[in-house]
Design goal:
This protein has 234 residues and is of the alpha/beta class. The chain has helices spanning 3-14, 30-44, 56-64, 102-110, 142-151, 185-193, and strands at 23-26, 50-53, 69-70, 78-83, 87-88, 94-95, 112-120, 133-137, 157-158, 160-161, 164-165, 173-177, 198-201, 203-204, 210-215, 218-224, 229-233. It has two domains: 3-121 and 205-218, Rossmann fold (3-Layer(aba) Sandwich); 133-200, Alpha-Beta Plaits (2-Layer Sandwich). It binds ribulose-5-phosphate.
Length: 234
Amino acid sequence: MNSLKEKQLAAEKAVDFIEDGMIIGLGTGSTVSFMIKKLAERIKSRLRITAVSTSTNTTKLAISLGIKVFNIDEVKEIDLTIDGADEVDENFNGIKGGGGALLFEKIVASVSKKNVWIVDSSKLVKTLGKFPLPVEIVQYGAEHTFSELKKRELNPIFRTTNNKKFVTDGNHYLIDLNPGPIENPVKLNRELNEIPGVVETGLFCNVVDVVVAGIGESVKIIEQKKERSNLSQI
Ligand code: 5RP
């Protein structure tokens, strides 16, 4: 089973979490695209939702499929956000931002009552850090912010597209870090956010409630419980 099929399985299963009348946060990425396509089918069969998007790409896809997208400031809070992730560890910490939308994704997640991540099996890891950790920074003084990250031996690389620095929907640059295994994501997230010029990091700690993972031919729903985590195979 390839990862694309696992992504599709997880994405389509996650649509079952959506109830009539909900305000839904739409994440970003290839896995989310499968989810949006399934959601569009349900809307055609009379499911009513209000959608908020985390990126220009997601907005474009949603609108092309007939889903009306509202500005985040038009809603008070979001009932449920379904998003992808690049890595998820055993403590429900994650790396996001492979698709460059981490800042808006974090804002949307922070005003969501429930956050569901949809992933293929390769994203489930013991310790974060194999996938490059994106950090969104302001353009002003970007080389100095980069030097600071280099001084801390985080192996920074500016993300580029067509030989130009990648610019996010928030009009910032992205730097991908390779810090090695991240034993304490909460601490690293705090330290990075204290560097002047850093807007946000792709470390999402204490954010996700449910991980829906495509594993081979099946889907595993892994729920974060207050006291302990619970694994259930369906
Ligand atoms: C975008 C993200 C994506 O959700 C993440 O990169 C996963 O992408 P994909 O579903 O394409 O593997 O965080 O900023």
